[in-house]
Q: What sequence folds into this?
């Protein structure tokens, strides 16, 4: 039975590709339905092909405003979390000090905590402090939950770094600042970049924590959430498709650059 | 995320300086830590304490709340909402098992069989992350629609008869049933399973497989005795990264489920943001946190990978 044998040999590949299909199916649906012209308020059933939504991506009231708020928050949260997280990661890898264990668990706990719990407790704090909920409370929350992910990403990179490289730099009369800028930072850069990218994605996409701490500010995920009850405009699918394409393009470009660099070295 | 599985370095990083660091140097780590740790203390640890105190308060929104050490809130909350708690644990566990079953072949495929397609498949696993997860979850409404091809196929294959009998679906539909919620949860957290699995599989030395083959192990035996045990760190961190967020999720059960599929996250959200019953909400989220921490601790002990975190 050659077919059965072939099936046996490729079983992993077949199941793997099925999972990949499961993973990508919603993205296909989002793309297809961005060309739909729905009859009612809800864009869940296919009616008719149309380019209307692509011609006017900002044709829905408040949607692009929420998109810009989300972008601003994501950018600031990324900067904040990356700077603070990188500092912590360096301290943890490079120095022995008291309370290292406590610091490590304080970094780990936010990642092991259900989002609802963090969201609710942060809201309790803000309510007790009488803080005005809005842009800044969202930003504070986002920096808080992105921080741990940056620390883990940077730590992994700095840990695998050969300390002799820095000793070599010092032997060649580089000052501490020079050593850091010319040797340490470039080597740690991929870890920092990974942490920053992760922060951006996490912050831009966060719904649960934002929902609790946003007050009347509406981020893009919150707009999508609201529209699920009121009726989803086709433009949401346009934005979703565009985000997917931008991500793929971005990763492809970075891979091409990486390949070139490796080829040059070889 | 995948970095959770990062192995400790072979040597202690940077041997301490021979001469004791003097002056400013001794304080450098503390200055580096200060801003970030303060942030976490003020906006992560302190809120937990506030929440603990809120959970033992009594009063009303108009008159204000006072700490009265009213522990009965915990008892009341638990006796009223235990079905939602059980449901959350059950759905999250089901989603985690499904993620492991679905994710393992794909992670294995990327690590050992993909060849030059490896990078492309990796991109396709990560890229959906950048499309808002809410938009993608809403797409499941279209996929699982009552008159859609998926429901028709499941119906004609008599799968729905089976799931109806199990109580996972009701009648001729999938939307607004537990099956839809578990399907959404599985989908949402699948990448969190695949990435750690991939990192630990990728580290396995291919020569071990050859050695197993040379010793006349069949492929399945090789997998059972060599590959799977070596991928345990990935399995453990993958299951944690799917189970924990899935147990606290309320988005999937709100968008794809019905009132019969409400999870504990939905209850906390409603109590906090709509009913404004802060003590009950605080008690509920404390119980959820404690339950998850307890389960995770036991699980990590059991699987013997304590050095993982």
A:
């Amino acid at each position: 039975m050659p077919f059965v044998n072939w099936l046996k040999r490729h079983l992993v590949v077949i199941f793997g590709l099925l999972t990949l299909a499961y993973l990508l199916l919603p993205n296909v649906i989002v793309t297809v339905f961005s060309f739909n012209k729905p009859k009612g308020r809800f864009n869940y059933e296919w009616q008719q092909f149309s380019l209307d939504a692509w011609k006017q991506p900002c044709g829905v009231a408040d949607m692009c405003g929420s998109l810009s708020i989300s972008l601003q928050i994501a950018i600031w949260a990324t900067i904040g979390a990356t700077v603070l997280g990188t500092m912590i990661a360096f301290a943890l890898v490079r120095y022995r000090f008291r309370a290292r264990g406590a610091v490590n668990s304080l970094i780990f706990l936010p990642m092991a905590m259900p989002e609802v719990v963090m969201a609710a407790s942060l809201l309790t704090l803000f309510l007790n402090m009488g803080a005005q909920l809005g842009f800044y409370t969202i930003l504070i929350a986002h920096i808080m939950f992105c921080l741990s992910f940056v620390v883990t990403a940077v730590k992994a990179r700095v840990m695998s770094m050969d300390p002799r490289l820095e000793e070599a730099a010092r032997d060649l009369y580089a000052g501490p600042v020079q050593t850091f800028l010319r040797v340490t930072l470039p080597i740690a850069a991929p870890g920092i970049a990974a942490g920053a990218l992760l922060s951006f994605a996490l912050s831009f996409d966060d719904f649960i924590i934002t929902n609790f701490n946003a007050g009347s500010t509406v981020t893009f995920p919150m707009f999508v959430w609201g529209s699920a009850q009121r009726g989803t405009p086709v433009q949401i699918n346009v934005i979703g498709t565009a985000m997917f394409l931008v991500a793929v393009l971005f990763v492809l470009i970075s891979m091409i650059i990486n390949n070139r660099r490796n080829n040059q070295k070889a | 995320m995948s970095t959770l599985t990062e192995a400790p370095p072979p040597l202690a990083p940077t041997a301490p300086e021979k001469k004791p660091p003097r002056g400013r140097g001794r304080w450098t780590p503390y200055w580096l830590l200060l801003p970030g740790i303060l942030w976490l203390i003020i906006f992560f640890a302190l809120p937990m304490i506030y929440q603990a105190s809120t959970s033992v308060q009594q009063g009303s929104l108009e008159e204000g709340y006072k700490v009265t050490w009213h522990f009965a809130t915990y008892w009341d909350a638990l006796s009223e909402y235990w079905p939602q708690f059980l449901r959350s644990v059950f759905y999250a566990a089901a989603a985690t098992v499904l993620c492991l079953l679905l994710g393992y072949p794909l992670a294995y495929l990327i690590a050992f069989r993909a060849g030059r397609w490896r990078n492309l498949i990796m991109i396709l696993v990560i890229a959906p992350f950048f499309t808002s997860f809410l938009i993608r979850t809403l797409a499941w409404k279209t996929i699982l629609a009552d008159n859609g091809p998926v429901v028709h196929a499941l119906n004609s294959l008599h799968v729905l008869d089976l799931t109806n009998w199990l109580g996972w679906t009701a009648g001729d539909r999938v939307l607004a049933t537990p099956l839809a919620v578990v399907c959404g949860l599985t989908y949402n957290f699948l990448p969190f399973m695949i990435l750690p699995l991939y990192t630990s599989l990728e580290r396995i030395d291919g020569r071990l497989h050859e050695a197993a083959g040379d010793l006349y192990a069949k492929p399945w035996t090789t997998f059972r005795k060599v590959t799977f045990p070596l991928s345990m760190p990935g399995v453990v961190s993958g299951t944690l990264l799917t189970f924990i967020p899935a147990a606290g999720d309320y988005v999937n059960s709100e968008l794809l489920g019905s009132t019969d599929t409400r999870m504990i996250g939905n209850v906390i959200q409603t109590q906090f943001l709509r009913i404004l019953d802060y003590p009950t909400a605080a008690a509920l989220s404390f119980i959820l946190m404690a339950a998850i921490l307890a389960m995770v601790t036991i699980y990590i002990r059991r699987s013997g990978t304590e050095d993982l975190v």
